[in-house]
Amino acid sequence: MTTIDMPIQKPVSALKSRFTLKTEAERFALVAAWLFLIILFGILMPDSFLSWRNFSTMFGSQAVLVVLTLGIIIPLTSGDFDLSGASILTMSSMVIGVFNAQMGWPILPVLLMSLAVGALIGAINAFFVLYFRIHSLIVTLGVGTFVNGVILWMSGSQTISGVSMDLVSWVIMGRLWGIPLAFYYALILAAVIWYAFEFTIPGRKLLFVGRGREVSRLNGIPVERVRATSFILSGLISAFAGILYSGMTGSADPLSGLNLLLPAFAAAFLGATTIAPGRFNAFGAVISVYFLVTGITGLTMMGAHAYVQNLFYGGALVIAVSLSQLVRNRQPQDFS
Amino acid sequence: MSNTAMTDNAVLVMNDIRMKFGSNYALKGVSVAVRRGEVFGLLGQNGSGKSTLIKVLAGFHQPEEGSEVVLWGEKMALPLDPMLIKKRGVAFVHQHLGLVPSLTVAENMRVTSLGQKNPWFVSWRKEAERLSALFAEFNLDIDPLATVASLPPVERAFVAIIRAFEDLRASDAGYGGEGILVLDEPTPFLPGEDVKRLFDLVRSIVKTGASVIIVTHDIDEVRDITDRVAVLRDGQLVEVLDTKTSSRQAILDTIVGSRIDAFAKQRMVAGAAPVTIRADNLTDGKTPPFSLSLQEGEILGVTGLIGSGFASVPYTLYGARRGAGTLTVADRKIDLATMTPLMAQRMGVALLPGDRLGAAGIGSLAVTDNITLPILDELSHLAGLDRGAMVKEAGRLSTMHDVRPHNPALALGSLSGGNQQKVLLAKWLRIQPKLLLLDEPTQGVDFGARQQIFKALDGAARAGTSILCASTDNEQLEQICDRILVFSRGRPVVELKGDEISRKAITEACFYSTDAEAAE
Fold this sequence. Notes:
The structure holds two protein chains of two kinds. Chain A has a two-stranded antiparallel sheet. In chain A, strands 2-3 form a two-stranded antiparallel sheet. Helices cover about 70% and strands about 0% of the residues of chain A. Chain A has 14 helices and four strands. Chain B is of the alpha/beta class. The N and C termini of chain B lie far apart (about 60 Å). Helix content of chain B is about 35%, strand content about 25%. Chain B is globular. In chain B, helix 15 runs parallel beside helix 16 and helix 17 (about 475-480) packs across helix 18 (about 505-520). In chain B, helix 16 (about 445-460) links the parallel strand 19 and strand 20. The interface between A and B is large, with 33 and 44 residues.
């Protein structure tokens, strides 16, 4: 009969503790870099930079970018790119501009409408990606550009001002500890997404679908449904970012929101190097946004030109992805 | 042990090769020499270092200072240059074949070829003709313009092997009629008949003066083809044996280090248990419909020659591949034309595909993540998933199935093939399926792990799980099956049960069935 000798297992605990230190360092490296930036600018500009006013503005005004980033990490986790996020954001704020500011509809139904438009565009993305089996990069780039055209047509290429003051007060005038409410909305959303990714079965399914479509399918995960849902959620959250955006400015601008696309991707990938390295994660994204913004704000306050924004965001995207590749031992990326 | 290998008449000498991954030595000073015109085997369990040694030779891994690689008397400078090694006349077929599935056979063959005359223009028509002729030389009928993805795994292996052989012919050593062909576990993909054809090819290569290094798990193959075999264990060379004069058991004992016995099964008698699984009018759309049934706790093997249709049975029954017919599991009947993997799972049917990291589990995720996937419902409470319970359950299952290293936080892909398979099997056995479908469950798994997997399967069968195993590994079928169906032209033609089951009988049935078909 069967006699299989088992050599005694070597204990792994000693090995583990050493690696834990390394992993912890990796997890919080970005937080340390952020603190370093704050201290550096604080020493250089103790009065202007280190003021609570400066920080509360930063936290509040960049909540839009945080929310957009949180939106796109959902399809990124399931293995798809959503390049239409910033277009959906702008579309959503333009819906508010046209229907609330121009046509005078009450604000609440208009907000629901703009969320619905976001979800609808997400569903259109999902349809083309899944039914025709086209790469998400292509579909969302095309749909996003199409949406940009619709925005310009709707708005006559004009900024529409006069959005309901209720919205403005819900987003930016209302403050808690001096920070606009928008910041807390973003934090709550981050917490929800973190919880969903870490502690729910749909979160697990999203992760598996992103890592291996065939594996997921053979494990009984409805891959197409998961991917469709992630596009729709991304559209919905991007639309929510658009609501915050128009509340922030009290108006709807057909162009400026589109510039948020690259920063959002930079933050998403940078976020994937921290907190839970190797995975797109909610709080990593939040920290990345504020790390990037702190750098840009500090440099701008020191008199740097507007182009530092592009240098910083573009550079950060490439460096972030390079760092996350180092975390993964430079395994080739598979974005299929 | 001496640190200098014997060097007389050697085409390749590897001296004191040391290779470190992190803080662990994968190779602790291994020295081997390969003689001109011999078939040299590298044998060892998973993780013994044999694949690492091959990757050092290929220049993929850089060994530590002091390690020496000498080719035809010329010492290669560290760090090793993969292109130079190839140019000197060492050609490799790695386990994963190194083919791009979306490109054609001709493009794949062309990618690495050293002997091309004009790099700026490739006549694909001529290339295709040349390749067809080359394939015909080896009695292969592979369309050079077909994409690699459209070929069955066995033909992909042929393409990779012939590509390496071509490189050899085009290299420096090739002009002198020499060269070293390195086959890193080439046979797990191949059925017995094709292994024979491969070995014939290997022998004819050796006759031209070339040497062959073959890495494998299979002791019978080693005894069949090699002249000498080096046995590695835990990163060290244990012994170099003369294959002709060493017994099977002696080689086995050298590999494992202590005596290890093959798993032996008590076969189940027909009618001993009620028939609980029934597949009626089963077809994958191309083959004539057939029916099969399993008793509760029975292990049924399906086999045949490649292309005989047995391989798609598990996938069709699971709804992973579109088919037709009905599947009845414990009185629940379902139409296979509308079957999905999710529905199959809900009926208590599980599938363990042959492609471990491509279809069964995710290499970049931890063992915990992979192993708990089907039982997440059980591991959640009101506030969501219980991460602590997940880790605990993964730890428990890892211990139960002897997964090494015992650390469920490791990525699945970092484990050896055998341990990956233990994890993936543990995942499905945990839900106690009524029907477990297997496709080549021990492909590329070492001897020890294989016996453990067999034991686990037998345990599951005793607990009432019916198992259907598609495989061309006759030794495996002999060891675990209660009954075997041999396929030909898409349907079962021979049934072997009880004492009729033996490796020899299975092989004969495979060929008998085709002969009988041919006679018709």
